[in-house]
Predict the structure of PhnA protein.
Amino acid sequence: MAQIDDLRARAGGVCEICGAAGDLVAVEVPPSDEAALLCAVCRDETEAPAGHWRCLEGAMWSAVPAVQVLVHRRLSTLEESWAREALEGMVLDAATLAWAEAGRPLAGIEHRDANGALLAQGDTVVLVKDLPVKGAGFTAKRGTAVRGISLVADNAAQIEGRVEGQRIVILTEFVKKK
């Protein structure tokens, strides 16, 4: 993953999706180790204000493939007509499109949390039970937020996410969507 200083220089010290200047963090864009600089709203850590995601219409023209992938993935989750039109208008090279679609569920596979809510790539979930992490020597505590999850493409019962700096596989029955 790129160093935070390199990302700040590339992004001009603002979120690479919406242009916000506060609370910026480097976010890895799986399945690669490329990263983008995002604010709390674009990381799904705080509620997006009305109309916030319209920023995707400008961000989709970024020259940075990691940003293009994040925009493509977010547009794919929105149901508004403008988002569908923007997604259809995105021009990505074959490699970037494959990256954007990597980790997406196979047709017919839906990942659902403990309450039955549909999970999507990049969602934030909260653990509903203490989970011992095999091979890592710690227990992921109930109430821990797991941000930016990845869906396991061929198994609807599993997601991946980072807990205490470790990338782990989590069963969907032990999480709820935030």
